[in-house]
Amino acid sequence: MKPSRVLIVEDEPAISELIAINLRHHGFEPIIAGDGEQAQRELDAVLPDVILLDWMLPTSSGISLARKWRSDSRTRAVPILMLTARSDEPDKVQGLDAGADDYITKPFSTQELMARIRAVLRRRAPEQVTGQLLIGALSLDGATHRVAYKGIELKLGPTEFKLLNYLMTYPERVHSRAQLLDKVWGDHVFIEERTVDVHVKRLREALGQAGTMVETVRGAGYRLTVMAPAAA
Ligand code: CA
After folding, report:
1. What is the CATH number of the domain that holds 112?
2. For the segment 41-86, what is each residue's pLDDT rounded down to a tens digit?
3. In this structure, which residues have their CB less than 5 angstroms from ion ligand 1?
């Protein structure tokens, strides 16, 4: 099997080199970029399997890069793991809102970093999403990774796509946050239940008019339902 390519976007060489050494030791192929421009050149050349993105970078911030790569069809599906020295909640949420799949707070242990990378790679394993699903006017094609509502294609991030795929596979059922973490995220050892809410919010936004199909069930979790007539 080809080693997974990990693009490290980090301006502090001491940190990026340490991460690279550890990645190589664990069978990954690390590529280092010191800033956004260099990272873009690497992305244009070969798409990595995962991006480790530092929050604080000299020219463009990690947040703005995450937003840019999420809106670009070429890089949209590449998982982004945000590296941040900050640990306060609003910033984490901002990172997830910008399109990061997960975040890790510096300083982190090598073991934790490897576990997180393996988790994001596992989440995007292609065999997990392959079928075609249709609920009302909402359709999802697992093979082509396309989601459409009333025939109009919608743009979803990789985590939102997996979340929608799961909800559409079991429509009308209520899923707790813990169940969603287990089924959609797979390895939820390091992920807080709050993360589910952030991705549900993003999913609703991405679905636009069909966003009301994702219902909050108070005290229980979330459910995908055929849009209620009142909301249509
Ligand atoms: Ca930095």
Report:
1. 3.40.50.2300
2. 999 988 899 999 998 888 888 999 999 998 887 888 889 999 887 6
3. 11, 54, 56
